Amino acid sequence: MSDRQVPLLALRGISKSFFGVRVLDGVDLDVAPGEVHAVVGENGAGKSTLMKIVSGGYAPDGGTVEFAGQPRVFGGPRDAQRAGIGIIHQEFNLLPERTVAENVYLGHEPKRRGLVDRRQMLSRTRDLLATIGETALPADAVVGRLGVAQQQVVEIAKALALDARLLIMDEPTAALADHEVELLYGLVRRLQRQGIGLLYVSHRLTEVFDLSDRITVLKDGRRVRTMPTAEATAEDLVRQMVGRELSSYYPDRAAAEDVGAVRLSVRGGGNRKLRDIDLDLRAGEVLGIGGLQGSGRSALARALFGVEPFTTGVVTIDGTPTRLRSPRAATRAGVAYVSEDRKGEGIAARQSVLDNALLASRAVFPARSGRAARTVRVRELLAAVEVRSAGDDQEIRFLSGGNQQKVVLARWLALDPLILLFDEPTRGIDVGAKSAIHDLVRRLARAGAAVLMISSELPELLGMSDRMLVMRDGRVAGELPAGATEEDVVALAVGTVREAAA
Amino acid sequence: MQLLQRRPLPPQLTRVRLGGLLPLLVILAVLLVLVTVRQPDFLAPASLMSFLGRSAPIILLAAGQYFVIVSGEFDLSVGSLVTAQVVVAARLIDSDPSRTWPVVLVMLAGGVLVGLVNGLITTRLRVPSFITTLGMFLILVGAVYLWSNGAPKGGLSEEFRRFGRRAFEDVPVLDRIPYALLVLLVLATLAVLLMRSDFGRVLVAVGDNPRTAELSGARVRRTRTIAFMLSGLAAAIAAILIGGYSGVSFQAGAGLEFGAITAVVLGGVALGGGRGSVVGAMLGALTLELLFTLMNFYGVSGALRPTVQGAIILFAVAVSTRRFTSR
Where is each ABC transporter domain found (chain A) (predicted)? Predict the structure, then answer.
């Protein structure tokens, strides 16, 4: 954006501390009307605090916020909303039982003689949706029945109904499937054309490059740099975020001699969501599972862990037919599973780091003696996976996503599992922790574990896997060797090529 | 197979965590001071010991309720279970001392059985425990009236009653130690040990996030059912003490379920599960009992008890919600 325009938002020297810890330190940032300004940085870099300051959630300790040319002090989120700043959170804030229009105008419904004027509410919502090119979304649809992408549109419309001129989007694609991301791109561009400024927070660099006009990198609460997107490269950004080269991003693959015997095999596996699953997983390898959301990737991992077991077919572990009827049975058979829903299924948020790490050991192999030794072992594991916390007694909910995930990993490593199933192990995790988890996964494979890893992020899938299975409609659509391209995976996932003989 | 090089750690001392209990201890101390101001004799060993013995049943019920609440459920049936147990015990013993011990065993088994039924209905039939145990409450009340034709029959033997009313007399320093207090100390110790065991830690994790617990290999339904059984067992023991102390009546256990829940909440245990200690729950019960004693000394009508309990529940939950949602 050119410097001649008056910025819509101008932050100058923003600082904020919590309990004496400096979270933001003199951050400057501008957003021009119609500009998409991406903010990137590791978790803990201060992105969310900065967004909360802009949207009125926190008051800064130092510095000024100017919006539309006027200095502002927001007393709270409502103040910021009224001024024209909307925020779209990662988790939506919608009433699932109400219609699109009711959600959009929640709290400021158009009234006639003191009663809600439904007709006007519907027509205004339709107009609003039309201005952002979302005519396909019916204003009277019940929100709970809409897909995630459409719910996001409702959130955006909700902000626009309050005349937002600046929208903050926090990891907007985290919940979206790949094809939905395209739709969001379109919407962002239409918002841009209307002169709305966007602050775009994301971990996914691809999006940042596709969408933004400028990029600001935050690290440890300071602004490292702001640059036009055209002048930035992915390598630069990663280096500025973590101080590390992109080339060292993925650990080396398994050498042929490291891959051992078949540890887990499935023949003709099927259940409500899966059909005809044939699969061999070898000791020492990382088998990547690709495919669109809903293609059966997660269902496969959950079947192998006994969450929704196979109802047909045979599973053998180390040559022995095994029935994995429950997570407990699977755990006893040496299988470990890291769910994609860390908050909902991975952690017990209010328990300590140590209690979380001990959970599976305690639940499945309760000890009458030797508990102290077991605790020491788990503490050592927590240190080995490099969990950063204020101590093992800290509640896990206060840790960053990446550190939470490491604790979940430690929980399973304590049982020395033979087979590890990872479903999106790095979702919502910052770049530094991400590569630590990649390293861990690879080290586990090298130590002889058989690893199955699901990922929606193609670079991750391609970078980590020794070979890949791509799922489609509950079946294995095909197998790809290491060195396959993103196009190969996508082609199998959407079914544009004939299924390769597996 | 060892997957990762473990990193040796410097030895660590296990810290005693008092932080969560501090507010409660302060309240307890303040109440104690207020009581003593009014009734200086209260701190005399004999009266203090009697107070503790008298408080034993509600403390035990609070511990039982704690197991259920920390696992994410509720047990509203304990009050009527106590009543039922007392009335049934009187009729079975029928003042015959030789039946004392068999009946005690029947009561313990009965408590566990009621807990088992509560647990199975809640976990297998997926009836919310609030409803399950409310149903059980009503069933027990009705069944006891039916069984005894509207008036308690029989009587408790002196052997039975001594648990609740007798004490070791003429003990040096402490003057007297009620049997009830000894029972309480033994069971409280067991409760603390249980919560430190693997079972106890898994129980709390189940209350915090049952999905996570299940996917870590825990048997969530079984764990919760055991919690209900422990609560039933606690009710049976409380019934033995209460029957001994105050005798047989249809009012023996009236309102105790709310007393226990109030105590647990006062002890800093989160409704909905996953947070709080059994020590806190028991101290909560002690605090509540002391508060009632105070009200008594200051001539406040006993009829205000439910009102006070209600206010405490609302206040304590509001405070803890504020404390735990703001990061």
Answer: 9-245, 254-498
